[in-house]
Amino acid sequence: MKSTLLIFVAFCAFIQIGAAQEKSSSSSNSTNSDGGTTPHLSDQDQVALRNAINTVLKDYNEGHYDDALTQLDIADKITPKNPELLNFRGNILMKQLKWDQAQALFIGALAIDPKYFPARFNTGEILYLQKKFGDARTIFLSMLTEYPKNELVIYKIYLTYLLENNIDQAKTYLDKFDALGNTPAYYFAQAAWCYNKKQDKDGNSYVQSAVTIFPPAVNTIFAKPLIDAGWLKPSS
Question: In degrees rounded to 5, what are phi and psi of residue 56?
Fold first, then answer.
């Protein structure tokens, strides 16, 4: 069961980085609503779940979100009330801009596993995507008290201040990044700072440094907010 559901974590790589930094056991051990662990699946169920997940990922990557949700229904029948599946469904609904439904799923995942990092992060991310930066920041700040060195959380807090043009507070968080960190947060945070100041050449230089050092999948995670802000093109 655990190995199968790791595919879902790969689907949300930006969440995987945040969760991996914490190395939280709660993010790898699913629980039922009664607090018990997910029961062992038969070989047949594991195959069925794996097939459903593979189809969901294919549909998702091709933008066939309704088809992906249909396949998730199959997975839900095999492992009901699973926080990873609820979070995954919420991510798909976010793509469809169904904000309220997605948030309800993230909250539902946390009701099952309050320490599940991806769902906790997504309760803030969904507000961030709606440009409710103050509300998103409140959630990210609450997470930061528990994960004070999480580069992904710090990065999102920093961006909420920068996008509100609260330069003093943004600079406070910009100074927290380390060029020798485990993620490209430093480089994309510096790039965002430059782009916001219309210093595109310097911003591009930081992005290029990240591209040189880190793999594409990781860079995409930190580049996406800059694309959403209009500072980078998707092909950058």
Answer: -60, -45
- What digits encode the pLDDT tens for the residues 8-20? 443 444 444 455 5
How does pLDDT run across 42-61, given as a tens digit for each residue? 889 889 999 998 999 899 88
Task: Supply angle C-alpha 161, 22, 91, rounded to 5.
Answer: 65
pLDDT band at 21 (very low <50, low <70, confident <90, very high): low
Among candidate residues 205, 188, 192, 189, the one with its CA nearest the CA of residue 231: 192
Q: In this structure, what are the phi and psi dihedrals at residue 37, rounded to the nearest 5 degrees?
A: -85, 160
The one-letter amino acid at 188: F
For each of the domains in the chain, give its residue range(s) and CATH number, in order of start. 1-130 (1.25.40.10), 131-236 (1.25.40)
Could you tell me which residue, 30 or 181, shows the higher pLDDT? 181
In the chain, what is the greatest distance between 2 CA atoms, to the nearest angstrom?
57
Say how far residue 189 (Cα) sits from the centre of its chain.
17
